[in-house]
Design a protein that fits this description.
The complex is a heterodimer of chains A (295) and B (359).
Chain A: H1 4-33, H2 40-57, H3 62-83, H4 93-115, H5 122-125, E1 132-134, E2 140-142, H6 143-165, H7 167-177, H8 179-184, H9 189-215, H10 221-227, H11 229-235, H12 240-260, H13 269-280, H14 291-294
Antiparallel strand pairs in A: 1-2
Chain B: H1 15-19, H2 25-44, H3 47-72, H4 80-97, H5 102-121, H6 129-153, E1 160-161, E2 166-167, E3 170-171, H7 175-198, H8 200-210, H9 212-217, H10 222-248, E4 250-251, H11 258-271, H12 276-299, H13 303-306, H14 310-328, H15 332-346
Antiparallel strand pairs in B: 1-4, 2-3
The chains are: A mainly alpha (295), B mainly alpha (359).
């Protein structure tokens, strides 16, 4: 029994990494354009399927295949904005959200049409051996899970630095705070929004690829994407740090409840946390309070 | 209620006249024709068509309920399938555990629905727009989880089989009986909605939807009316879910996926927000859509190859159609219908005169 607490802690860490990586996509788009992207799970799944595609092209070089898939996902995100969400700018927020819902449904069908509904293993195609790493304390963690944790740290570090210091990061924050003023100061809102969609899809797709490498890929991945949404909301929909904290809270609750109460709870725990949060503190731990009226 | 002219030269000169459900002789003729057609249809149509019609009736009850909540009271809900599941599972659980008859399970489903509506209407007092949509989404997952939990715990992992309801000693089975039961319920729901909307409640909802602060300033109890909208809508939805359970004779969580919630939202968008006609048209469109896709695929050469892909094609096309409506025709099918109507009402002119009679 000595290793159990350590193993649980490791599981929590990995799940936090998964949720945090996905949740930052929700946060990026919401923070910049006030649109809740309910197709994020599907876009993430699409990213994983793109890896499957590039894997057959560059099968021997896994790094090249992943880089290509990440690049393609970013392109998809930008295209989604340009051809779909751009038309919804200035429409009712709800209409924009429903557009993303429709996009998600369409993407689900399209991925089955192209790649079939069977479970697939990109790790095999890339010839990555997903061995387990023994950690101190007797716990184990797969290589891909370790990669997930590492990429969470890298992604959050670079996103925070990007938003804080770079020119485009400042523009994104400005567009999120006061779109009208930002546009009047010469910020190209469409470019900023497109960038946000691109970045959001890239981070989501990265998460999707790593999960697919770890445990295979099929249509259930979109559900993982949706389960990460409570993490974003618990932390506050417009705060990156909040998404990290939210992911930790949701992951902890999920792992502990699954282990001590009922494995079936896995599907519902994030939403229970979400309900509790909406009742007590709807704008999230780090979110801006005024938002409730702005929506 | 309706500010639009219904026919050339037809003016309403009193409030009572404005409130009348049937205003012009043409409307009376058209409605009678529809009623006669609907009563006559089952004696001509095949069982397959009757099943389709019954499905449309069921979907109409649900979409009318959602239209009340979203289209009129302005409260968003993404958890409609969850409420249907609640109604269906009330029937399933009651008829399995205590062998409750039809006349007990249906009110029980309504009660459960209205309770859930009250509980999940409560966040609407604080939350707006997106946040509310999200909390109803959470409701959906919660109800579906509880239903699944019941199924596994009691060993009905493949679903609960329900006996057909007995009315006056006769079991309601067969396409014909269900066609009339569901048709009458849908018609009753439509009438209920029409009456609610032309009463003070409906006007209060419209005011809340337009602007909550102004509604409050006009002396409308915003909190109470919001909750009422949730309760009425959830009650009707749960009853629709209960009828669905009896109609299929089978309850399983798989039937109440998130996709069903999205389908209901799609019904009111495709039909046209803020119109009961739109709710019915949307229900018709969304229910028949997969069958249309199937027929279209069959017509293609090499139909066998596509058989396994049917659901994927259906999803793709459905997402596409929903996007097209949102982008190109936000007013939905009713918007198209109104444009046609206006064209004929104004003929030979193209536009309403700018100066002159108001509206």
């Amino acid at each position: 029994m000595g290793t159990l607490p350590v193993q649980l802690a490791v599981n929590i860490l990995v799940l936090t990494a998964i949720y945090a990586l996905i949740a930052c996509g929700y946060v990026l788009v919401y923070r910049v354009s006030r649109v809740l992207n309910l197709a994020h799970g599907e876009l993430m799944m699409l990213g994983a399927y793109l890896l499957l595609m590039t894997a057959s092209q560059f099968g021997s070089h896994w790094a090249v295949a992943m880089a290509a898939a990440v690049g393609l996902s970013g392109l998809v995100g930008v295209l989604v904005y340009l051809f779909l969400m751009r038309k919804m700018t200035g429409e009712m927020v709800l209409a924009a959200v429903l557009t993303t819902v429709a996009l998600g449904i369409g993407l689900r069908g399209a991925t089955v049409l192209i790649w079939s509904a069977q479970q697939q293993y990109p790790a095999q195609r890339l010839q990555i051996a997903n061995f387990a790493i023994a950690l101190p304390g007797g716990a184990r963690m797969s290589l891909c899970a370790a990669l997930l944790v590492a990429s969470m740290i890298v992604v959050y570090g670079s996103l925070l630095a990007f938003l804080r210091f770079s020119r485009w990061g400042v523009r994104m924050r400005a567009a999120g705070q006061r779109p009208l003023l930002a546009a009047q100061r010469g910020i190209n809102l469409h470019a900023v929004y497109a960038l946000a969609w691109g970045l959001s899809t890239v981070t989501g797709a990265l998460a999707g690829m790593l999960i697919a490498l770890d445990s295979g890929l099929d249509q259930t991945m979109a559900i993982i994407g949706l389960k990460a949404f409570p993490a974003a909301l618990v932390g506050g929909l417009d705060s990156l740090v909040g998404a990290l904290a939210g992911a930790l809270i949701v992951a902890t609750a999920e792992i502990l409840l699954i282990h001590y109460v009922d494995p079936l709870l896995s599907e519902v725990v994030p939403f229970l946390v979400l309900i509790a949060m909406l009742v007590v503190w709807p704008w999230g731990l780090f979110g801006t309070r005024e938002e409730l009226d702005r929506v | 209620m309706s500010r639009r002219p219904r026919a050339s030269g037809h003016f309403r000169t009193s409030y009572a006249q404005d409130l009348k459900l049937i205003q012009t002789p043409t409307e009376r003729w058209v409605l009678s024709a529809i009623a006669v057609g609907l009563v006559g249809l089952p004696f001509l149509a095949s069982p397959f068509l009757l099943d389709l019609a019954s499905q449309v009736f069921l979907a109409s009850i649900g979409s009318l309920a959602l239209m009340l909540l979203t289209g009129y009271a302005g409260q968003v809900s993404l958890g409609h399938a969850g409420l249907m599941a609640a109604g269906a599972f009330t029937v399933g659980i009651l008829s399995k555990e205590v062998e409750a008859p039809f006349w007990m399970t249906l009110p029980a489903a309504a009660l459960v629905g209205s309770l859930l509506g009250a509980i999940f209407g409560l966040p609407s007092l604080r939350l707006r727009g997106l946040y509310l949509a999200v909390s109803t989404l959470a409701l959906h997952f919660l109800v579906v989880y509880l239903g699944g939990e019941y199924e596994t715990r009691r060993g009905y992992s493949t679903g609960i089989v329900i006996d057909p309801p007995l009315i006056g000693g006769h079991a309601v089975t067969g396409w014909l009986a269900w066609y009339f039961v569901l048709g009458l319920t849908a018609a009753g729901t439509l009438l209920l909605c029409l009456n609610l909307l032309r009463s003070g409640t409906g006007r209060a909802w419209a005011a809340i939807r337009a602007n909550e602060t102004v509604a409050e300033a006009l002396g409308i109890g915003v909190a109470g009316h919001k909750l009422l909208a949730f309760i009425v809508s959830s009650l009707l939805t749960a009853v629709a879910g209960a009828l669905f359970a009896y109609y299929r004779g089978f309850v399983s969580v798989e039937a109440f996926s998130l996709f069903l919630s999205i389908q209901y939202v799609a019904m009111i968008i495709i039909g046209g927000m803020g119109s009961l006609l739109g709710a019915v048209l949307g229900a018709l469109f969304v229910t028949l859509f997969p069958y249309g896709i199937e027929a279209a695929l069959r017509a293609l050469p090499g139909a066998q190859r596509y058989a396994g892909l049917l659901f994927a094609v259906n999803y793709t096309a459905f997402g596409l159609v929903m996007i097209l409506f949102l982008l190109l025709e936000p007013l939905g099918l009713v918007g198209i219908w109104r444009r046609v109507q206006t064209y004929f009402l104004l003929w030979p002119f193209k536009h309403r005169p700018v100066a002159g009679r108001q509206r």
